[in-house]
Amino acid sequence: MTRGLARSVFGGLLVVSLVMFLLPADDLSPNAPNDKVTHLLTFAALALSGRWAGVPVLPLLGGLTAYAAATEVLQGLLPINRHGDPRDLLADVVGVLVGLGVSWAWTGRRSGAAGQSSERLHE
């Protein structure tokens, strides 16, 4: 059940992020937080949820990087009064790396704790 929930969260975040990145400029809130921070946090959340869903690291890194590039290209091509920004792409990739790093630290800590518990059981 957890894997199904994780996949649903990952898929939901992908859909929400796509809508968010392709909204026409007129629909964006003028009170929105810093654009680069939003990009970084969005892609960190995507990377974390992708790892939770069981997506292997390298395909997740490549897929989210391609997704980031595609959304920036689409912003420039679609008639939504937005433009692609290489700095947004950079913030996206940094966000993916942050999310993967947090995931790695979390799973490493949990694995270490499980190993220590196991060792104590055998003493």
Q: What's a concise summary of this model?
A:
This protein is 78% helix and 0% strand. With 123 residues, it is mostly helical. It has one domain (2-22, 35-121).
Task: Describe this structure as you would to a colleague.
The protein has one domain (2-22, 35-121). The chain is elongated, with a radius of gyration of 17 Å. The longest helix is centred in the C-terminal third of the chain and has 36 residues, at 86-121. With 123 residues, the protein is mainly α. The protein has helices spanning 2-22, 35-52, 57-77, 86-121. The protein starts with a helix and ends with a helix. The chain has four helices and no strands.
Oligomeric category: single chain
What is the arithmetic mean of pLDDT? Answer: 89
What general outline do the C-alpha atoms trace?
Answer: elongated
Low-confidence stretches: 115-123
Alpha plus pi helix count: 4
Order of helices and strands: HHHH
The secondary structure category is: mainly alpha
Question: Can you tell me the number of structural domains?
Answer: 1
Radius of gyration: 17 Å
N- and C-termini, Cα separation: 34 Å
Helix content, binned percent: over 70%
How much of the polypeptide forms β-strand, as a percent range? under 5%
Total count of strands: 0
Helix/strand layout:
Elements: H1 2-22, H2 35-52, H3 57-77, H4 86-121
Key traits:
123 residues, 4 helices
